[in-house]
Specification:
The protein is of the alpha/beta class. It has one domain: Vaccinia Virus protein VP39 (Rossmann fold), CATH 3.40.50. It is built from six helices and five strands, in the order H-H-E-H-E-E-E-H-E-H-H. It has a five-stranded parallel beta sheet. The longest helix has 23 residues. The N and C termini lie close together (11 Å). It binds S-adenosylmethionine. S-adenosylmethionine binds next to helix 2.
Length: 169
């Protein structure tokens, strides 16, 4: 059984009491890596950016600062309750599995989103279609070679976070 099928539907609902801590932890762990990667990839001044599955919006806010006054950023999430406003940030509730992606973007980013969604093939196609000519699509997901989901659970600091957030169909 594939990893995606074991996690149907998406198990880490943003309405969960632990969701804010979950997003804080992801941000602290991964934002420096993501930001370094984006800086090495493209200059975003004046660009139109799209952040999908934005979580608490830490990268969306980073993008909003990077694009400057002439740029724009759209942050989409199926439950965007944790995303704080920013003058250059449009925030929208959006289900990547069914909703069309409007607009044309110079930079699109998705981190730890597609691996959760079994429908990621068509979603990837829609993301590519939403790129402006010469645009960049950056997708970041866990890659754990030669490990199973059970290894990952065993490697967690305690079983409690796994029990709180996992759903096995
Ligand atoms: C593991 S979190 C990652 C959040 C953020 N991208 C990060 O790396 O910090 C996955 C995010 O994707 C969102 N998500 C899950 N399914 C989605 C869907 N079908 N459409 C849009 N967003 C979705 C969740 O609400 C959650 O905020």
């Amino acid at each position: 059984m594939s990893l995606a099928n074991q996690f149907r539907p998406y198990p880490l609902d943003n309405a969960h009491t632990l969701a804010a801590r979950h997003h804080q932890a992801l941000s602290a762990l991964l934002d420096p890596i993501t930001i370094n990667r984006i800086h090495g990839l493209v200059s975003l001044a004046g660009k139109r950016c799209l952040e999908v599955g934005a979580g608490a919006g830490s990268i969306a806010h980073f993008l909003a600062e990077e694009v400057g006054e002439r740029g724009t950023v759209t942050a989409l999430d199926i439950n965007p309750i944790h995303i704080q406003p920013h003058p250059r940030l449009s925030i929208a509730e959006h289900d990547l599995t069914v909703d069309p992606i409007d607009g044309s973007y110079d930079f699109i980013h998705a981190r730890l989103v597609l691996s959760h969604l079994p429908e990621r093939g068509p979603i990837l196609y829609r993301l590519i279609q939403a790129l402006a000519p010469g645009g960049y699509l950056l997708i970041e997901d866990w890659y754990i070679p030669d490990r199973t989901i059970d290894d990952m659970v065993i490697a967690a600091p305690s079983p409690v976070p796994c029990q709180n957030s996992s759903h096995r169909g």
